Amino acid sequence: MVRSVADVSSDDWSDSDDDLDDLDDHDDLDDLRAFGAAGDLDELDRWLAESRVDAAVTSRRKERWLAQQAGEEASVAGVLRDLGERGTTVVVSTVAERRHRGRVRAVGDDFAILDTEQGEVVVRLAAVSAVRVPGDGAVTGDRADRLTVTLADVLPTMAADRPRVTAVTRSGEQVHGELRSAGRDVAMLRLDGSPADLAYLPLGSVAELVLR
């Protein structure tokens, strides 16, 4: 039943006063008095400014943590894939003391293919000594979705076309000829010149293949 003002007893008003007294003890009400009731707008501005600073510090810490996590997950393959997707021009140096300037066309489990002015170059990731990019070309390289295909997987398909290649070993030796076949861990070239000798190259010794 809805009660009228006349039905409210003095005890009820006393109870209400007690409730208000309880509210007076509440921390939130004290804060409101400090910020609003007392008219202390300067104090409110200071509190808001400190809150914004705290939020900014927390945000920067989170960004640094995420960047650190990404850096710890980086790999050569991930860096090259990121750069390839951006279309960034790179300079890849190898342990054979050679440099290739171009764009990353594809990245496999243990190799990368570069498009250069000299043609396509297949570089073994284990033979990469450095990757140089412009100053604004930083990437995280924390890719976990790289291709699982290996150089041994793609060489037989390449050999079917009998391409002329220059195979460069990790020691820097260059072998010129026609790629005739490739197996699980070896490739066979018919060498340029006469007589046309054959060369069997262990894939583990190959740093790069330049398709001519």
Summarize the structure.
This protein has helices at 10-24, 27-37, 41-72, 76-86, 151-159, and strands spanning 89-94, 99-107, 111-116, 119-124, 128-132, 164-169, 174-182, 186-191, 198-202, 206-211. It has 212 residues and is of the alpha+beta class. The longest helix is centred in the first third of the chain and has 32 residues, at 41-72.
Commentary on this structure:
By secondary structure, this protein is an alpha+beta fold. It is 37% helix and 30% strand. The chain has five helices and ten strands; from the N terminus they run ααααβββββαβββββ. The chain has helices spanning 10-24, 27-37, 41-72, 76-86, 151-159; strands spanning 89-94, 99-107, 111-116, 119-124, 128-132, 164-169, 174-182, 186-191, 198-202, 206-211. It has a ten-stranded antiparallel sheet with strand order 5-1-2-3-4-10-6-7-8-9. A hairpin with a 2-residue loop joins strand 3 and strand 4. Residues 1-26 have low confidence and may be disordered.
